[in-house]
TrEMBL record:
It comes from the Bacteria. This is Biotin-independent malonate decarboxylase subunit beta. Pfam families: Carboxyl_trans (PF01039). PROSITE patterns: COA_CT_NTER. The lineage of its organism: Bacteria, Pseudomonadati, Pseudomonadota, Betaproteobacteria, Burkholderiales. GO terms for biological process: carbohydrate metabolic process; fatty acid biosynthetic process; malonyl-CoA biosynthetic process. SUPFAM superfamilies: ClpP/crotonase. It comes from Massilia forsythiae. InterPro entries: AcCoA_carboxyl_beta (IPR034733), ClpP/crotonase-like_dom_sf (IPR029045), COA_CT_N (IPR011762), Malonate_beta (IPR017556).
Length: 302
């Protein structure tokens, strides 16, 4: 199945819409990726029976900083590192658990992701073509760990840039937490990025923008505005994501495998800064942007 096929299957413009009963049946048959936890998501991507977890919960590598502040810890610090095969190829899946601390990135969780990416790069240098998938469900840095979390995110950025020279690094954000802050930069550094319609991607979250700029600038309660500007469909249409797929585990696994088959892109999106800076220069800042005006500015596919 091609990338375009999967992408277009979400919103077929040239075919009649299915009857309501058919849509309900299709929805009931769907294996929702969003409803899975981080560990289950990793297992759904890897070939059956191949998943092996590294630095798992029984090793109890929890954040020391949350406990000092009287906050509940989690024995995997909200990050699952899974190694296995995807379509028969060595793959490491780094899944962030959005249900723990909003998927925030602290020292331990960040070190698990950066360390796994660095080991994958080392495998490639030794002749083992290991590829990586990062499942983003994160509000960004964990405020309780401040600079340590930021340092960990910087290490993740460096590790992605190192590994993507050998094999693609694919980012997936399904929802419902979204992908924000420094981890949105990590998503931008990936070789390919896959979103669902329910996903959201942005440097700052809606509440942060409203708090800093005021409700007149951005109403965080306006769900149509939030998804219209930062949702998965819009990000794909404006060229900031490579595919927008249904919330279906099989569809997401298929698109990830198809993107790995493409190999390392000739030029990563993050290496096209001139293109995006030129687009920003054309944006009219005196008016509230709309989904349509943003699509008119950015060099997307739609």
């Amino acid at each position: 199945m091609s990338v375009d096929t999967v992408s277009h299957a979400v919103h077929p413009a040239d075919s009649p819409a299915p009857a309501p009963d058919a849509r309900i049946e299709a929805l009931l048959r769907r294996d929702s990726f969003i409803e899975r936890g981080a560990r289950s998501r990793a297992g759904a991507l890897l070939d059956a029976g191949s998943m092996r977890e590294l630095a798992g919960p029984f090793e109890r590598i929890a954040s020391p900083w949350l406990a000092m502040q009287g906050l509940v810890t989690q024995s995997d610090d909200g990050v699952v590192v899974a190694k296995g095969l995807l379509a028969g190829l060595p793959t490491v899946v780094l899944a962030i658990e959005g249900a723990f601390q909003g998927g925030s990135m602290g020292e331990v969780g960040g070190a698990k992701i950066a360390g796994a990416l660095e080991l994958a790069a080392r495998d490639n240098r030794r002749g083992i073509p290991t590829q990586a998938v990062i499942l983003f469900e994160t509000g960004g840095v964990r405020l309780q760990e401040a600079n340590l979390g930021l340092a960990a995110i910087a290490e993740i950025h460096a590790a992605i840039v190192d590994l993507r020279r050998y094999r693609p690094v694919i980012g997936v954000s399904a929802g419902t937490v979204g992908c924000y802050g420094g981890m949105s930069i990590a998503a931008g550094l990936c070789s390919y990025l896959v979103l669902t319609r329910e996903a959201r991607l942005g440097l700052n979250g809606p509440q942060v923008i409203e708090q800093e700029a005021g409700v007149a600038e951005f109403d965080a309660r306006n769900r149509a505005l939030v998804w219209g500007l930062t949702g998965g469909e819009q990000r794909h249409a404006t060229g900031l994501a490579d595919a927008c797929v249904d919330d279906d585990s099989g569809a997401i696994r298929a698109i990830v495998a198809a993107l790995f088959a493409r190999g390392v892109p000739a030029q990563h999106r993050s290496q096209q800064a001139d293109v995006y800076l030129a687009a920003l220069a054309r944006a009219a800042t005196e008016e509230q942007p709309t989904p349509a005006s943003v699509r008119a500015v950015y060099p997307g596919e739609a």
